[in-house]
């Protein structure tokens, strides 16, 4: 049997590469600095949330509160931003962590279904965010470096001159490309690298997958099931908090009503990226690819509109996303059924 | 010659759940590097005994000594660390994870900074499995392998904890013949390495293949311990069922009267049914007004056969002729429409709708016939329910009481009534008196006799020999999924049935 | 003592509601007026109607996240019929009739789609209805291009704000829907079958009940209820905004069902409970608002209520 299997995650990466290539050929400036930067800036927030969701879904749970938590944390970090970058950052992230703790308690101590528990947290976070912001957006202070988190380009100051010159060659183009990544993108990249390493190379990561693959069996094997589940919700909340901080930094204001629909985007990214919704199997890389894919589709739709070939309103994106999710979920269920039939036959 | 100390001594173990005593002064002793079989019918207490040993339950009384020291295990994980591992019937591993990972889950080998050392784990897994002559790609997900291999991985995991005693709880229930042979070899290998095994099974042949001694439990007690060479299969079965071999006498142990029923023409004929893994060749027939008993040890495939007749599960082979016509029934609804009724083995799991009332549970299958313009004809429902409550003697505070508040016996009566009110032609009863007190048992048994008197055909599955012997007009015996004997009224006796269960066709 | 506890459990919701009302009598100005009653009832209507469908779905052990999106679809499509956009209409009443019937049919079909995904592919209800949650609103937005459709058709609007016996028409619709649903649950074969499927699916199947059929019907009904609610919303506002109709409705409906006492894993259903649950949530919100607490706080309170209700439910189960 061939050792190299096309897993769903690899398939997504291939599709992503394909789409990007096609788009680059079709649209002027698709791979240009400006477009890449804005797309990455925008997607980085969502992909952080998707990473957290990936961990949660891998344990077989779900976290519906991430959008509202991100919104709430954007408000908190905006309120703290006048005191500097660090307070804004730490405050927002800590609030997200707190939300995760609440979720963890509801789910592992009170034994409330993740769906209901995170639904309640979603409402509470939403309400708290609105209360703190007094129902309006909260401007971020520009006196500190806080906005750099969202609007800056991390490596802009080390960017060598020659990279932008014409005829610079492949290495130069790639280097220039990479160095132009905005700060939020770097934050997301670091998060994904850490997340990927944790999943594949630490016992905690393996426990996450084991718990999702068989909660009772994991318990019988002596794994700390409750502790693992608690932890993934903390991770999800913290990452949502981080996303909220970036949100505030990017747009210059904490938005208490932003965040609606983020959890759906996250779930869709995770599922499209090859992670099973029932838990136990999945890929961090796939989630990243899924998030990028969904974001790229959105961008392509924008470009198409711009070119005037078709006049698709932005509303089509949710239809497309929904159809995507549908196709993936049906495929997943068919694969699962095939697998179980195969197992029964042995 | 110095006497070898026993590895495990469990003495006078008591364990109750609420006011139900599961173990009453039970004993179990295992020598080092011995393979001890543990047998008993449902409810005999062997599962409880094992769970007391491996820490899943805490005993109420008695002592346990392991390797000469008092045994303390608060959980299966603790037991494992102390040298007692358990392999369950269901593979309690994570199918999505690799073989190596499953072996090391919970005590992964790490490098610096907490990073997992996959190389060491993979190599370790390979070495471990090699001890059992298993050579597979340990990096592949467990679910890619057959159940037998998965079973081996579970054993390898258990053994890797430096187990001195491995408990195997019905390990062969999902294995085919070739895979069972592999398991047997593995057990002998364990024995050769000095590991003792407690082997719980229903399959008598396996006991004789691999065990040194056998402990027989019944009704929460240990009733016999013997060397395999000293006890015949018949004696084994007799001991399990509590029958005194030399003392087969007609007793009024059940409420079945001995009068002959008026038996009519052919009602149901099942030919060479094959269902899933368990049943490969089951055949029997039932005539109108006849009570046919389906006997066999646990695991012989009786329930699966009955469910296939009722179309609750699909059959892979075989034919069913009902009421003179060959039938291809696809769902319980179709079977019901054809005139069958089915009382499942486990009331709680498949019988009662716990939050609904007695009346609703009773008329659940009858509902479509009770309607007037889609609405329930409440007057008619009341009348039918009242009639059956009185007729069968269902003790409840009223038809609107929630069924889960009734005693087991009364719940069973409601379930029986569910089918009776449909006027079926054939009633399939799977363990109709299980878990019911003696008084209610008698009432239900005489009810069954009455149905037959009224022309109903009855297929009765029971693990209680006396019910089969005294209630059935004919008995078919299933063994490992095949019909091995058919006994006519005159031939029916406890001895004959047990013989068939133990040896197969005589 | 245990009697008291069981009484409290059975009627807890009602007791809570009564207590809330009494509290308001005491501290909220102008509470005991017809107007207050009217205002509260109208705000609650759509939640209750959707909640009825949701109760039935939850009673079979499932859940429907698409209700808000289906409301949007129905609400966005409807004006297109009676304002003559899609097809020419002879007179306004035909237009209104079409504008009512067709969106209802379409939303019900979407509901059927949900049920089909669930029964055919064994996709969990959360996921199956998530698809429409994501895509459904998009469909509504696409068909209207996200534009606000304002209309002035008093005959249509009367379904929401017209008054019969001094009570807004939508309240009557709510009463009828609640009444029919409660009746079906209690008195019809289908109602029993539904409860059996939720209570013990294996037993239901062995008793000859077509579990598949029950589940398909239940999701279709949920779509149906969502459509009605969507129509009421646009009639109330005399405008249809595909972006806003039914936003957050799924949470409100689930909250009403949970607080009202229907078990979230199925087997028991109380339509009246859902009505009371919605009233309680609404009343809490009103109490807070009328006493100067910001609206956002009501969200936090709602969250707390849900957790409390679910936790209490679990205690009862044991």
Describe how the helices and strands are arranged.
The complex is a heterotrimer of chains A (346), B (506) and C (318).
Chain A: H1 8-26, H2 33-58, H3 66-80, H4 85-109, H5 114-133, E1 138-139, H6 148-151, H7 169-179, H8 183-201, H9 203-213, H10 215-220, H11 225-251, E2 253-254, H12 262-272, H13 284-307, H14 316-345
Antiparallel strand pairs in A: 1-2
Helix pairs in contact in A: 1-13, 2-8, 2-9, 2-11, 2-12, 2-13, 3-4, 3-5, 3-11, 4-5, 4-11, 8-9, 9-11, 12-13, 12-14
Chain B: E1 8-17, E2 20-30, E3 35-39, H1 46-53, E4 61-66, E5 69-70, H2 76-82, E6 84-87, H3 99-104, H4 118-130, H5 147-160, E7 165-169, H6 177-192, E8 196-200, H7 204-210, E9 213-218, E10 221-227, H8 233-241, E11 266-275, E12 279-287, E13 291-295, H9 302-309, E14 317-322, E15 325-327, H10 332-338, E16 340-343, H11 347-351, H12 358-362, E17 371-372, E18 375-376, H13 378-393, H14 408-420, E19 426-430, H15 438-453, E20 457-461, H16 465-471, E21 474-479, E22 482-487, H17 494-503
Parallel strand pairs in B: 3-8, 3-9, 6-7, 7-8, 13-20, 13-21, 16-19, 19-20
Antiparallel strand pairs in B: 1-2, 1-4, 4-5, 9-10, 11-12, 11-14, 14-15, 17-18, 21-22
Chain C: H1 2-27, H2 34-59, H3 67-82, H4 92-121, H5 125-144, E1 148-150, H6 154-161, E2 163-164, E3 167-168, H7 169-187, H8 189-199, H9 201-206, H10 211-237, E4 239-241, H11 249-260, H12 271-290, H13 295-317
Antiparallel strand pairs in C: 1-4, 2-3
Helix pairs in contact in C: 1-12, 2-7, 2-10, 2-11, 2-12, 3-4, 3-5, 3-10, 4-5, 4-10, 6-10, 7-8, 8-10, 11-12, 11-13, 12-13
Strand arrangement across the biggest beta sheet of chain B: 6-7-8-3-9-10
| Overall helicity of chain B | 25-40%
End-to-end span of chain B in angstroms? Answer: 46 Å
Which structural class fits the helix and strand makeup of chain B?
alpha/beta
User: What would the principal axes of the Cα set say about the shape of chain B?
Assistant: globular
Distance between the termini of chain A: 18 Å
Counting DSSP E segments of at least 2 residues, the number of strands of chain A comes to 2
Number of domains of chain A: 1
Largest interface: A-C, 47 and 45 residues
Low-pLDDT stretches of chain B: 246-252
Report the sheet-strand fraction of chain B: 15-25%
Looking at how many chains there are and whether they match, the oligomeric state comes to heterotrimer
Portion in helices of chain A: over 70%
Order of helices and strands of chain A: HHHHHEHHHHHHEHHH
CATH top level label of chain A: Mainly Alpha
Count of individual helical segments of chain B = 17
Largest sheet of chain A: 2 strands, antiparallel
Tell me, briefly, the overall form of chain A.
globular
Measured by DSSP, the beta-strand proportion of chain A falls in: under 5%
User: Which radius of gyration of chain B do the C-alpha atoms yield?
Assistant: 25 Å
- Biggest sheet, spatial arrangement of strands of chain A: 1-2
